[in-house]
Amino acid sequence: MGSEGNKMNDGTSYQPSKPTLCANGCGFFGSPATMNLCSKCYKDFQMEEQQKAAAKVALEKLVTSQKKADDASHVGSPESYGTAAEQVERQEEAVSAPAAVVKSNRCFCCNKKVGVMGFTCRCGSTLCGLHRYPEKHDCTFDFKGQGRDAIAKANPVVKGDKIQRF
Predict the structure, then answer these.
(1) Which residues contact 35 (CB under 8 A, 6 or more apart)?
(2) Which CATH number belongs to the domain containing residue 129 in this structure?
(3) How many folded domains does the chain comprise?
(4) What pTM, to 2 d.p., does this model score?
(5) pLDDT per 10-residue tile (average), the chain, 166 residues
């Protein structure tokens, strides 16, 4: 009787699926919930999709703003439009131009990872604790010039009125 009960449960119980490798071929295992991609590849895929969507929205805004500007300034002049290929190239350049500035997490001199403890110099470099001083990393920033400018700005020249002699 006990074995008959097990046979009934075997047909209705959840059968675990065989692990499948990532569809990108990175060597990790994927799941059907992530389109047979591993977690890292799925995250990269989502980021890529978000970037494409943002670029599409920016491109549409650019196209609509150009159309409005063209309609307002050049009513029907064929020279102002150019070829369609030139317009697409200009739009792609405009979309790709505003690249995000990424702060480096490595020392400019020794390439050591600095993490959150990195020092940012006035010359724009990110440095470790050993190279944070200007004389240690051959800093190109003009500290004396900045000091002179600060003093000149803080202490304006005061000239008195000339005294008229009798």
Answers:
(1) 23, 42, 45
(2) 4.10.1110.10
(3) 2
(4) 0.33
(5) 50 64 86 87 91 88 76 52 57 50 79 88 89 88 92 85 78
